[in-house]
Amino acid sequence: MSSDIRRADEAINELEINRDLSQYIVHCDADAFYAAVEELDHPELKEVPMAVGVGVLTTCNYHARKFGCRSGMAGFVAMKLCPHLVCLPLNFEKYTAVAQKVREVFAEYDPNFQSASLDEAYLNITEYCNQYQRDPVEAVQQMRAEIHLRSKITVSAGIAANAKLAKICSNKNKPNGQFHLANDRGAIMSFMRGMPTRKVNGIGRVFERELDAIGVKTCGDIYAYRGYLSKLFGEKAFQFLMTCYLGIGRTDIRPAEESERKSVGTESTFRDMNDKTELRTKLRHIAEELEKDMKRTQFKGRTLVLKIKLHTYEVFTRQIAPPTAVHKADDLYKYSLPMLAKLEKEIPGLTLRLMGLRCTNLISMKKDGIDFFGMTKSIISRPAIQKEFSNNDDEWEVWPEDEFEEAARQERQDEMNEIEALSQAEADAQNDDTPHRYAHGKEVLPNPVPSGQQEATDIEEENTWSCPICSRPQSANDKAFNEHIDLCLSRQTIEEAVKASSTQESTPSSVRRESSLLEKSIPKKRGRPTKSDSADTGHAQKKLFFS
DNA sequence: GCGGATCAC
DNA sequence: TATGGTGATCCGC
């Protein structure tokens, strides 16, 4: 046991030796971005509870939050919390346009800034500050003012020595504020000491609970348990937790690249369905949706994954490797159908609420021009986004030799078979109103609720509020009430509710793993013990080697 | 490599 | 009345 502690201390030493305090990393996070953008078009909504989303809320403005409405919340729950809530449909064209204005400002401070999503980005402003002899805090202040000037939206920012810390800091003074954590080891250590584990990007609800179960509530608590963590949660999680305790994170900020895509998939939820013909129709439809995405992203997949969710919310996946890489609906359907049929055999009375298809082991079909013989020439994992400032042009992904050969062979074969089809697809794409990258859930075009709705009901008049999920009275206190809703929405509650309400035949044990029962008294090895260092990158992990 | 599970947005 | 979709990663087997 003391050897475990010694090993942990060595790991800490190793990390400590390479601690980098020389960089100024900024995490920028727009405030209620989608809602804020909508407010630009609908100024009258500024003082009214407003949320944006389809089915599930994507963002809520501050008025909506006062009622407990939050992103990630089902629309019907939010409407119960706040009956005069105005819900707007998503409009990604609008959001991207505004995001683009913001990105223009980012680029002036760090041409290599990394977008983590539409409304989040990491910047390394070290060079900027050196070049212009600027104080990081003032520089960020000015950048945020500039963003507001040009885009009319507000962003919050965190400034710190690395991405992990900056991400936490950007939430400190939200909205429309910033927080600076000095590049000082002592300041960082004490900052992390009291930091609840959940605040760290990569530690979710589950891991938080598991850590809590052994007595770790804050990142500072991690140290005392350093001798146990590897055995409990695995080596990766151990390393990650050490970086949390130390407040260490990556400092290399580079633009994310399309080339790092590893899968393309689509899935959809529907009313409970057990009719075999209907299920096949649904599968066929999903295959066609996926074909569109494969065409848009220009990939084929050598592996096809079928995902289903039962009416009990249990999720299963099955995958196969078709004889050739697939991307067309006919093939996607043809090869996924046997998987569905097998599941129907394994799980009698199969009743689904979700079906999805995903391609992995991708082969890029991006055209890099026309080769000598007039054949379309495919390339492997070409970085798709030519950022004007990108200095990473030489960083093409390299495949192992034999894989490359196989892929090339595969492609030649497919091209012989499908060259006509492909040029047809190309022609289609030209006339196509190419669906937006985020344009999903298009079948549901909900409820722009008229703004002049009647006043709030008597929700707030009593000193208890009724939980919209469990209907039990809760204390009329924002924080406590929200926490209760979190609990109520947890999967445990869902499963209990489903079990209690449906006297369903249990899933045969042949396909159900013991661990699918969510109750567990002893923490087990974690399914996903957080990416070692890229949990806060928002894109594929780039391993950091300390040299 | 497969299937389950977790996490971010 | 009725809980989303996309993508990534890690673990045990």
Give a description of the structure.
The protein is an alpha+beta fold and 547 residues long. The chain has helices at residues 2-17, 33-41, 62-66, 75-81, 92-109, 126-132, 136-151, 163-169, 185-193, 205-213, 226-233, 235-246, 276-297, 329-346, 401-431, 478-489, 491-501, and strands at residues 25-30, 50-54, 56-60, 86-88, 114-117, 120-124, 155-160, 178-180, 263-273, 299-310, 315-320, 352-364, 367-370, 376-378, 464-466, 473-475. It contains 17 helices and 16 strands. Helix 8 (163-169) links the parallel strand 7 and strand 8 (178-180). Helix 1 crosses helix 11 and helix 5 (92-109) runs antiparallel to helix 7. The longest helix is centred in the C-terminal third of the chain and has 31 residues, at 401-431. The protein binds a DNA duplex (9 and 13 nucleotides) through helix 4, helix 10, strand 9, strand 11 and strand 12.
Q: On the 0-100 scale, what is the average pLDDT?
A: 76
General form: globular
Count of beta strands: 16
Radius of gyration: 25 Å
N-to-C span? 29 Å
Strand percentage lies at 15-25%
Low-confidence runs: 369-464, 488-510, 512-547
Structural class: alpha+beta
- Main beta-sheet strand count, sense and barrel state: 5 strands, mixed
**What percentage of residues falls in helices of 4 or more residues?**
25-40%
Strand order within the widest sheet?
5-6-1-7-8
Count, helices:
17
Describe the secondary-structure layout:
Layout: H1 2-17, E1 25-30, H2 33-41, E2 50-54, E3 56-60, H3 62-66, H4 75-81, E4 86-88, H5 92-109, E5 114-117, E6 120-124, H6 126-132, H7 136-151, E7 155-160, H8 163-169, E8 178-180, H9 185-193, H10 205-213, H11 226-233, H12 235-246, E9 263-273, H13 276-297, E10 299-310, E11 315-320, H14 329-346, E12 352-364, E13 367-370, E14 376-378, H15 401-431, E15 464-466, E16 473-475, H16 478-489, H17 491-501
Parallel strand pairs: 2-4, 7-8
Antiparallel strand pairs: 1-6, 1-7, 2-3, 5-6, 9-12, 10-11, 10-12, 13-14, 15-16
The protein binds a DNA duplex (9 and 13 nucleotides) through helix 4, helix 10, strand 9, strand 11 and strand 12.
